[in-house]
Amino acid sequence: MTLLTPQAGDIPLPVPGALSVPYWEGCAAGELRFQRCSDCGGATHTPAVLCAHCTSTDLVWEVSSGRGEVYSWTTIWRPATPAFEVPYVPLIVEMEEGWHMLADLVGCEHDAVHVGLAVEVEFFAHPGGITLPYFHPRR
Q: In the chain, what are the domain boundaries?
């Protein structure tokens, strides 16, 4: 078996927009950032203008611990584009701060993942010029 590794090929890459620049700057600095509502305390990952919990516009950026547990996952054997190396394992991670994030698993075999697996973030600078977050099992 082979350990899962970050995708390094000509994969589609995110294009930071006005709302997501602080998130991507955080990734480049080795920080996993998310937004928290100053009014209700709700946490959200996808950069937003309004709080998903109470619709307040008072959102502030915080730095995550980068730790969480696998909430759900799948193994991809037939990718949407041949640029992706298979297998790869997209995860939904429930973060310690109470929000969810989608990212790929690295640093273990594809069949080692399970719901509840403790993971932490790891960043990789893609040759395409953006730093991407991945998760590996906590050591």
A: 21-137
